[in-house]
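Consider the following assembly input.
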Amino acid sequence: MPRRRAAVLGGNRIPFARADGPYAHASNQDMLTAALDGLVARFALQDERLGEVAAGAVIKHSRDFNLTREAVLGSWLAASTPAYDVQQACGTGLEATLLVANKIALGQIDVGVAGGVDSASDAPVAVNDDLRQILLDLNRSRSVGGVVRAMSRLRPGQLKPSIPRNAEPRTGLSMGEHAAITAREWGIGRIEQDELAVASHHNLAAAYERGFFSDLVTPFLTLTRDQNLRPDTSTEKLAALRPVFGDTMTAGNSTPLSDGASTVLLASDEWAAERSLPVLAHVVDGETAAVDYVHGDPRADGLLMAPVYAVPRLLERNKLTLADFDFYEIHEAFASTVLATLAAWEDAEFCRSRLGRAEPLGSLDRSRLNVAGSSLAAGHPFAATGGRIVATLAKLLAEKGSGRGLISICAAGGQGVVAILEAA
Amino acid sequence: MTDRYISLVNSQPGRAVASRLGLPRPAVLRRYEPGAPLLPGPTLLSDAALADVLKGMGVDVRDAADADTRWAALLYDATAVASIGELATLREFLHAPLRRLSASGRIVVLARPPAGVDPVVDAARQALEGIVRSLAKELRAGATANLIQVEGDASPESVLRFVLSGRSAYVDGQVIRVGLGAAPEDPGKPLSGKVALVTGAARGIGAAIAEVLARDGARVVAADLPAAGDRLVSVANRIGAATLQLDIAKADAPATLLGHLGERYGGVDILIHNAGITRDRLLANMRPEQWDAVLAVNLESQLRINAALLGSTVLHDGARVVCLASTSGIAGNRGQTNYAASKAGVIGMMRAYAPAFAKRAGTINAIAPGFIDTDMTQAMPLAAREVARRLNSLQQAGLPVDVAETAAWLASPGAGGVNGQVIRVCGQSLVGA
């Protein structure tokens, strides 16, 4: 490919908090600004005009229509830095990364920041839809009669606020309920889910212990580490938890609702070299897929199964196989999601009928999976997860000094965003 | 953190009350402001030889006293003093103008260091120290007295600029020795083009040092513990610095530091060892981990980082290292055997390293702050704090910026003739030597 490749120079995020925890009163804008300011400080970007900042949130207040731009204006970046919001559910952070990386690759910009933020605590509570219609009609009324007619429709039940739910609009099922269907269809067992969750906690704890996150995370409010992290958890402890989705999925092997924000600094090699900033990794390519989880096959078209389709397409375009990676970052929405994804790639029948492959895509070396922990341990503020993963993987590749890594993130709406990074 | 007592006694009713009751009346000290004249008034000079140097700094130099002038500084060149009898000329020089020294005035005596050859000469030279230190205790209204010992053909320009200016507001009753090694600098931005690392920069004295170094033109890398990262970010963004989250007490910290400074900045010119902790306990109650932690952070980390730097090309020639010691390390302090050990150890380390840094045209010095108003001292009980604040010739606590200005001066190219020394920023604290 003749185009230049975007370099990942680093990242910054705030520790992720459990919903209604220490960040309960922090807004999306507060958190995104904090993550951005930490990035500015790490790279001394004060008053610099960047090509753009692309970020977003999944759960947003209507007043936050220009969330990212507002965060930039409140940050130490030059106010002349443009910004826009991206929203692709849990794929937001990675999609924003690809957008910025693509502009850099095309030469449209030399440097940009991608990021994401979400608060499950500071949720946009709205008036319920009946009341909203009445209030709007009231506002439109030109006569006393109109006002009286609108007022007469008011009922006590309309005082119940409308709170955003973690549910798919077209099925009414929560994400966990969807994942439980997939887990059942693929026969994903409780023990293997718990083992994956324990590995996530232990890997994240070990990464903190060796100082891995000292240039990736900046404390916020009272937190210096991800609040959800349980370094001493074990399969025995997790085994005691009762299932909450299906028969196998518990609070221990599902991600908790979380608050947090992340950012990634991307640039051209030239921009980095001018400032003597080491390049951690390059963004090689990205792919997005979607499945018809509403009407499709419950086994092959599960809500969170889109990466299963995106990855083979991405590999093929880049003439790579699943074995050609040193690190795999598969977002742990639920332990069962990761395991169902791996099971699908190993399943000959699925790969033949749905991916059109003569051979299965294959298995991956589990010792290379989420080696610095993932969402089960860190938590999962929806739009912030992509930035966390990109920065983590880029640093893992920089430490190793060679090789490439695969990122796979499933998202609501039956979507999936995947990408390849390569060591610089 | 503001010293309400200072505000009170500098108000009109407060001044009257304090004066009647004979209470201490600390002055609001003159502090450095970029672009402002070095001194707010004329300087009386004993010897024309220095006139050109001072005029070059923009000082209004006079060589004759008259009855009306308010003096911003009195500067006496005693480098030729070689007998006890000659000391009287200093007394005569100061006698009348002393009464017309303005607030935050400066008395500076230039001398030769005792040489250990002629007992009469050394007696006279050492006597000057006694005069200056006593005079510093007699001065009022924020005025200071300091002695500069000039070796051989060394230029006193840089140290004169420091001592006369508001940078030295809280440096009082000190003896500063200057040798050869001064490098040229732009007095407005003396640190321009320099890369400076400040440890413990998230708060207090470290944050002030980072800010002053940045103000003087340095590219600052502000380092502190990962857990202090949020405060570090606000400091760095305010002054245009870069952050580095690092636990300097970890074994791999020197390697991390060298790698970072080498890769991102091509090396380092200025290193300020400021990070420090206290774990105060009487020795009888001291737990091993309290002992170890203080020595590891305050002393062993500095030893390891200095050793690694000296052995690498990351340390640029002409580098400046400033280590934060403490008056506790000089005088001792109840409940601080561990802290005083670390701070006295810093002084020992610094002196031993001085020749090695000098070989690379660099310097290493220590600053021993006295009572400085910080979060740490703010946590003291009110009465103890109020008493501690007054126990010095300036009758007030220093500010973090006072330590920072001294660090920035020691880090400047012009201060290349100052090596292996301890500069106390203590308002001539009654505690310690």
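Chain A touches chain B through 23 residues (CB under 8 Å). Ask yourself how this observation constrains the way the partners meet.
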